[in-house]
Amino acid sequence: MRSWTRTTVKPRACAYAALLLLAIAACSNNDHSSMPASSTGSTTAAPARGKLIQSPVQRVGSYSPSELLALLAGSALGKTLLQLAYTPMCTIDVYHLEYDTVDPLGNLTPASGALMVPSGAASCQGGRPVLLYAHATQTNRAYDISALAASGNDEGLLMAAVFAAEGYIVVAPNYVGYDISTLGYHPYLVAQQQSADMIDALAAGRSALPTADAASTTDGGKLFVTGYSQGGYVAMATLRAMQAAQMPVTAAAPMSGPYALSAYVDAVFEGEVSLSAPENLIMLAAGYQNIYKNLYSVTTDVFNPAYATGIGSLLPSDTAVSTLESQGKIPGALFSATPPAPAYAAMTPATVPQNLAPAFALGFGPDYLVTNAYRLAYLQDAAAAPDGGFPGVTDRLPPANPKNGLRVDLKTNDLRTFEPTGPVLLCAGSSDPTVFYLNTQLMVDYWTANAAAAHLTVLDIDSPVAANDPYASLKNGFVAAKALVIAGAVAGGATDGGVLQVLEDYHATLVPPFCLSAAKAFFDALT
């Protein structure tokens, strides 16, 4: 579930989607000074879930509409954005939340995140909707979504420009394992723990309102939950947890998330290796081993001995993934190019679906992460206890009785038995080589079969435009954006017609602005 900040951002067609994408790129390289609030009068609260550790919260930045426009004008992409009639409506005050949540063992632990509060114009004050946002995969241990001027914080900038500057109060946790967290690992794709973190961040953010800097901006009572990639998964897990606790949610828009974890990882082991798979599996294994303790006795039970030492604490890291790769700590491939047994040659790598085959092939090589012995054991378990949604479709549910430790944990955290009771938008792209569309499709199939379809809106941003299609402009914009990527790749000397460049950009930079545009419109209609 690669973060959408790791590939070069290019200008797109379709004005609003271009606005979103350019807003990310334009803000990411600025030197706007922060405006911290005085620490005088701060207090230390007694530990409790969702309670602020520091109160009042620390303001770390303030951006008026003119200042935001000035920031945008400070880069080439920002200048392009200003030609698209983008005008921020509200002043934004950004706060660094520090609050107590729980770790996977139920112990209280500190966490942090961002609170973004609009003010200024009359339409930015009063009771405002709250947006609870879950961010995508981050490998940077120091990641702080409230640090808008920091390199690599495109999502924080996006939330500020597109939601906070349009009148939404934004709450966005960093998750435990990041920033001030004292937990030595990140509970990656652990539904119960990550949803608790989100709910506690929301409680902390709401308790900080109204802030002294925006005393007229209050919680209007409407709550929207969204997130992308890993954050799409976390958003859906959070919706499930809040619904079970009878906490009101106005609407949700999980985007391009790995909801059907069992089917998704089975597909990876069966040769459909996703982009960024090595780093994602390292983080997944670290979390599951720390929590469930059933993946291995020693790291070499799973990992190539060349990479096994210290791998349980490798990510997230203060060192960039590219540097870890150059240091020989992370390989380029997930699996050996040699099949684990002759029967698996056809899936080493998989060649179907054909349009994703070039991406799958990148997951195999002489320098690999997972041993053939472990891959074989996983595949044998998948054959003995098949998932109901992959490779064949039966009941579309996770496997009934897996024995492999990783598959047991994936089943525990699979979201396919959840049914929403309120409005939900699912948005993704059907040719995504990083988080496969089967995740979205299996959720849609389950909800349709269980009478939850009435609450569901589905957008495959990469599907053909239909008659009277409400998403026609976004879909046409997506086509145009892909064409720009192809043209740029060909102009740069690509000999494959830009195929690999589109695959590389697809999840990280092509899909996000269009899905978020759809989510914003979906929420606006309910405010």
Summarize the structure.
The protein has 527 residues and is α/β, with parallel strands linked by helices.
Number of domains: 2
User: What is the CATH architecture descriptor of the largest domain?
Assistant: 3-Layer(aba) Sandwich
Order of helices and strands: HEEEHHEEEHEHEHEHHHHEHEHHEHEHH
CATH topology heading of the largest domain: Rossmann fold
Largest sheet: 9 strands, mixed
What is the share of helical residues?
A: 25-40%
Measured by DSSP, the beta-strand proportion falls in 5-15%
Straight-line N-to-C gap: 30 Å
Q: What's the overall average pLDDT, rounded?
A: 89
Q: What do we call the CATH homologous superfamily of the largest domain?
A: Alpha/Beta hydrolase fold, catalytic domain
Number of beta-strand segments? 13
- Unreliable spans: 4-43, 74-84
Strand order of the largest sheet: 3-4-5-7-6-8-9-12-13
